[in-house]
Design goal:
This protein has helices at about 1-10, 40-50, 50-65, 100-120, 140-155, 170-185, and strands at about 10-15, 25-30, 75, 85-90, 125, 160-165. It is α/β, with parallel strands linked by helices. The protein has one domain (about 1-185): 3-Layer(aba) Sandwich (Leucine Aminopeptidase, subunit E, domain 1). It has a six-stranded mixed beta sheet with strand order 1-6-5-2-4-3, sandwiched between helices. β5 (about 125), α5 (about 140-155) and β6 (about 160-165) form a beta-alpha-beta unit. α4 (about 100-120) packs parallel to α5 (about 140-155).
Length: about 190
Amino acid sequence: MEQKEDLSDRIWIEKGDITQLRFKVGAIVNAANSSLMGGGGVDGAIHRAGGPDIIRECSMIIEEDGPCPTGQAVITAAGNLQARFVIHAVGPVWQGGKNNEAQDLTNCYRNSLLISRKYMLRRIAFPNISTGAYKYPKDEAAAIAVHTTIDFLLENEYPLAVIFCCFDDENYNWTKYYLDNYLKQA
């Protein structure tokens, strides 16, 4: 029972634009593509709001290591955002669920959380990775995001808190549903 109360203090949900958070976080997670150069949706919004520092650092990562594989994550400065860092997590494109998409999406969340632990970040904010242009079913993506994050928080001190920042009602409702149900069981 005490664990549930601790988790309730460490994980919550907000509705809105992740680039316009009302408080500062250690990192904003970006639903990135493998080129790390921005694109549509949350990826483009983060690059536009963060400014040229993000692109500059992403370019250096690509020069050194090449494209970021699906399921992996890298960290850069956050530029003009209300955060110290941006963690760029490359989500899977939905292909019917038979091409390891669930594991790749789990890895996105877990690798982002591992980076936040390494940097001892107090708070990080996640968007709904892969549910936009990559067409991952929002209900399944929310379940993976919530379960992966709570399992990680149960075993790790950092990040101290995780915020799911949902842009649309459907993502918000599914994330809230799984968050409420999972916290009741924790």
